[in-house]
Specification:
27% helix, 6 helices, 286 residues, six-stranded mixed sheet, five-stranded mixed sheet, alpha/beta, Protocatechuate 3,4-Dioxygenase, subunit A
Length: 286
């Protein structure tokens, strides 16, 4: 990952990041789906038919076919399937999953979530290094049900990158739970979190995913964002990201995850040393 001004050292390699994301998925997400043979057949056939149609429509050559095989092999060798799928595919899956939700908008989780972050009360400072670089950020709001009822004891699981675009557990030399935490809302559903403003970053580009990006002449940037999972007993968990206005890649996020409803409205903090943002979450019944 690289910061917007390009000055940060490229410490988080694609291979290391891919290995971390792949292992994390195997530990926390790998599940067997009880799908009927008919469902599997239908989905597999339609995906293959779409591939076949593309090959015929664009007269794909054997050289191009062999290049594709080589690239697919390298994606696996680099451990980049979680990165590739979360960047280029997950937003469509999330769109389907959230189509009937009445409450807050969700968006992709991405490959950098880690369960088991430290737990805090309704007012908390996220774990960070001494003199953590970045603009101080106060993030506060309320968790409510779709009928407006405050949801006491809600969990706000938050994680984000640092001022150089790196995530704890996916880049070296960062404490395990840096800028990660689980906050429990108070009796009125309110919470207040003290952290730093995350930076925009490029996804790792020195592996197979980066090779595709370069070959297609795409950019690799994600706008600055906060990641959150918000949940409450008896209500649907929502996974989302919140964005900052003015970021040049809000309109062309490589992961296609930005939605207008997820844009924050920062104001100067009371002491003038940072920014303040307020955002409420509305959860659908389970």
């Amino acid at each position: 990952m690289t910061t917007m001004d390009g000055t940060a050292e490229q410490r988080a390699t694609a291979a290391a990041t891919g290995a971390s994301a792949t292992e994390r998925f195997r530990l926390d997400k790998a599940v067997a789906v009880d799908a009927s043979p008919e469902r599997v057949s239908r989905l597999a056939r339609e995906v293959l038919e779409a591939v076949h149609s593309t090959i015929r429509r664009h007269q794909v050559t054997y050289a191009e076919y062999d290049a594709l095989k080589s690239w697919l092999i390298q994606v696996g060798a680099d451990g980049e399937w979680p990165l590739f799928l979360d960047v280029f595919v997950e937003h469509a899956v999330e769109e389907v999953a959230g189509a009937t939700r009445e409450g807050s908008k969700g968006t992709i989780e991405g490959p950098f979530y880690a369960p088991g972050a430290p737990e805090f009360g309704a007012e908390a400072t996220l774990p960070m290094r001494p003199e953590e670089k970045g603009t101080p950020l106060t993030f506060h709001g309320q968790v409510k049900a779709v009928d407006g009822t405050p949801l006491a004891g809600s969990t706000i699981d938050i994680w984000h990158c640092d001022d150089e675009g790196y995530y704890a557990q996916f880049a070296p030399d960062i404490p395990q739970w840096n800028l990660r935490g689980r906050i429990t809302s108070d009796a009125t559903g309110h919470f207040s979190i003290y952290t730093i403003q995350p930076a925009p970053y490029q996804i790792p580009t020195d592996g197979a995913t980066g090779a595709l990006i370069r070959a297609a002449d795409w950019h690799a940037w994600r706008p600055a964002h906060l990641h959150l999972k918000v949940s409450a007993p008896g209500h649907q968990l929502i996974t989302t990201q919140l964005y900052f206005p003015g970021d040049p890649h809000n309109d062309d996020d490589i992961a296609a995850a930005v939605k207008p409803e997820l844009m924050l409205a920062p104001t100067p903090s009371a002491d003038g040393t940072g920014i303040d943002v307020e955002y409420d979450f509305v959860l659908d019944p389970a």
